[in-house]
Amino acid sequence: MAATITEQEARIQVRDAGLRLLREGLVARTWGNVSVRLDDHRYIITPSGRTYEELQPEDMVIADYQTGKYEGSIKPSTERKVHEALYRTRKDVGAVIHTHQTNASVVAAARREVPPILDDQVQLLGPTVRVADYALPSTRKMERVCVKALKGRNAALMANHGALCVGPTLEDAFVACVVLEKACKAFIEAEFLGGAKSINIFEAHLMHQFYLRKYSKEAQKNR
Ligand SMILES: [Zn+2]
Description:
Elements: H1 7-23, E1 33-37, E2 42-45, E3 61-64, H2 80-89, E4 95-99, H3 102-110, H4 119-125, E5 131-132, H5 140-149, E6 155-158, E7 162-167, H6 170-190, H7 201-221
Parallel strand pairs: 5-6
Antiparallel strand pairs: 1-2, 1-4, 2-3, 4-7, 6-7
Helix pairs in contact: 2-5, 3-6, 4-6, 4-7
Bound molecules: zinc ion.
Zinc ion is lined by residues 79, 98, 100, 161-162.
């Protein structure tokens, strides 16, 4: 289980992550959503239909990923079901970010899996970036296809929609979004240079595993 943080810390982290995503050009207007796991049944998520600039820490919504119920009168993001499914099924996930970031959306529109083409992509995100099958937002199918595409990965594309990034902390999920955008840009632009050349898939698996082990050792040391 990822390290737990206090409710107030989580509210500030989610607000700050939204602003950083906005500054990096990875989200716009009210699109996308950010969440953090609080404990063994609750998480905190951005509300529905608000722009990132106007969001305050107290606007974030606490919900239960086991029951789907939420606290207070502010409605949580309508795309929260995918976050809930990930918290239920992935014990290593402490934060989830969903974006409509441009380059990832281009690859998602083409429904192309991103092969292992950059070392940082492979280390942080996993050996490939899969594309989740198309599903209508807020459906059970959407939950199912996203969990499947993210198996053993920290990022996935959602067919004709956008991207999903996860990590043990919100900082990790944020970095995953940045690295994913760079990898998708490299993948698209390499097409004009004769196509991206893949790293050997076995070596890609090794690199990702090495990164995960090294990361968990460092995280333990810093505890
Ligand atoms: Zn979306």
